[in-house]
Design goal:
Shape: rod-shaped
Distance between the termini: 222 Å
Oligomer: single chain
Structural class: alpha+beta
Radius of gyration: 76 Å
Length: 486
């Protein structure tokens, strides 16, 4: 070293082989000599300066011919760097900027320490790591003191060195102005809200009074009170429009109420007319049922009398037939006696003639009785046919009664609650009609049997009449023969 400003221990020493050859100054000399370019060696403790942090920039020197003459080395002054980094105008009481190397040791002194912190304080906070990694930004985090700060960071490269430049301010101080602003804002808002409340109170009263009145009107309308006057219809604002709309609603509600009353009256009249119709129908059904029952009773009595007459006629026919049989038997016996007592014929001829004449008279009477019985039975057959016709009429009436009962049931169902009583009457009438139909069917069966028996009786009486007439003819022939014998 041929020249130095401070003349420290390294002055006039050989930086290539001497005592301080392995210092960064010696390294800077050799690097510049070899590379023939500017070189930079970052801060490290420097022995000749009592191990104070020192960094060197070296440049090779050549003559006009390009021959190497030596190296010009510059030791970066720490105080100048600290002066730049310690400037804290606008950073308040806690703001600072500092440099950190890639080894995370500070390259400038801290504002908060009296002694130098270069190469003495390690700073590996998040903002330093982000900056060393080449990122630029800001964050809220802890600094090397453990204090919450607002930090901004950026990477800087100086020749072959990588540093992080960090700017920080305590969060409490940074947000103090914001807190003051928030306080002022809150107070201003409170004053503004209070003023708006006072204004809103008076404005609200001017709006809520007519709205409250309108609410009362709507409540009364909802309770079917349509007699009130609606205020505010003459206003030209929204309240007036609302009042006019409520007025239209009031008129419509009155009209609906009138229509409901008319419908109610119409329903009452319809119910009354329906009840009267059902009552009339029930009376008609009851009267027709009584008539049918009376007619059935009369027909039953007539049928009983006819049956009794048929019984008596049958007994008379039976007695007449029995008499004819007895007379015929006696005549046959007498004829046999005549055949066996021919020898006595002459002496008894008069008596036989009398007996034969008597038998002929009896036979003649039997014929007359048989004919009368036949006429009676025929009359009975005609009467039975009439009964059959009447039974048919009763069946038709029963069917009509059943239809009336069905109609009454339908009308009672339409009448709802008011027609329940008529439904019971209709059900009873229907049951009576069914019973009448069953009784009519039974009577029809009995009449049919009587008709069959009458037909058989007519045929039997006809046969008896024919037989008696034949006997009468035989008796007449016998009487004539006897007279000739006499």
């Amino acid at each position: 070293m041929i020249y130095t400003v401070f003349k420290e221990l390294d002055y006039a020493t050989n930086l290539n082989k001497g005592e301080w050859a392995q210092t960064d100054l010696g390294n800077a000399f050799r690097a510049a000599k070899v590379s023939k370019e500017d070189t930079f060696f970052d801060f490290r403790p420097y022995g000749p300066s009592n191990d104070a942090p020192a960094s060197f920039i070296s440049r090779p020197v050549f003559d006009n011919k390009g021959s190497f003459l030596g190296v010009l080395a510059f030791q970066m002054p720490v105080d100048r760097i600290d002066a730049v980094m310690a400037a804290h105008e606008g950073l308040g009481k806690s703001g600072e900027t500092y440099l950190v190397g890639s080894d995370y040791l500070m390259r400038s002194s801290s504002r908060f320490r009296k002694e130098s912190t270069i190469l003495k304080v390690t700073v590996d906070t998040k903002q330093v790591i982000e900056a060393i990694n080449g990122n630029t930004g800001s964050l809220i985090g802890s600094d090397y003191r453990g204090v919450e700060v607002l930090a901004a960071y950026k990477q800087i490269k100086f020749m072959n060195a990588t540093w992080a430049v960090i700017g920080e301010i305590d969060q409490s101080e940074a947000l103090k102005s914001i807190s003051n602003l928030i306080t002022i804002t809150i107070v201003s808002l409170l004053v503004f809200v209070l003023a708006m409340c006072v204004i809103g109170f008076f404005v609200g009263r001017s709006i809520t009074r007519p709205i409250s009145s309108m609410t009362d009107v709507m409540t009364r309308l909802a309770n079917n009170d349509f007699t009130m006057n609606i205020p505010g219809k003459g206003r030209m604002d929204e309240i007036g429009s609302m009042a006019r709309a409520v007025s239209i609603f009031q008129e419509n509600a009155k009209e609906n109420e009138r229509l409901r009353e008319e419908q109610k009256d119409s329903a009452v009249q319809s119910e009354k007319a329906r009840s009267e119709a059902l009552q009339k129908m029930a009376s008609t059904v009851e009267q027709q049922t009584k008539d049918v029952a009376s007619r059935v009773s009369e027909l039953a009595a007539e049928t009983k009398l006819l049956a009794k007459g048929m019984g008596e006629s049958s007994e008379a026919v039976f007695e007449s037939a029995k008499g004819v049989k007895d007379a015929s038997t006696a005549q046959l016996e007498q004829t046999r006696m005549i055949a066996t007592a021919t020898s006595e014929l002459t002496s008894s001829i008069d008596e036989i003639g009398q007996q034969v004449s008597h038998a002929a008279d009896i036979t003649q009477r039997a014929v007359v009785n048989a004919q009368d019985s036949q006429k009676t039975i025929l009359s009975l057959s005609d009467a039975v046919e009439v009964i059959g016709d009447v039974v048919g009429v009763i069946a038709d009436i029963a069917e009509q009664t059943n239809l009336l009962a069905l109609n009454a049931t339908i009308e009672a169902a339409r009448a709802g609650e008011a027609g329940k009583g008529f439904a019971v009457v209709a059900s009873e009438v229907k049951n009576l009609a069914v019973q009448t139909a069953k009784s009519t069917e039974e009577i029809s069966k009995q009449v049919h049997e009587v008709q069959n028996m009458t037909t058989k009786a007519v045929e039997a009486v006809g046969n008896i009449t024919t037989t008696v007439e034949e006997i009468n003819e035989v008796s007449s022939a016998i009487a004539a023969a006897i007279e000739e014998q006499s």
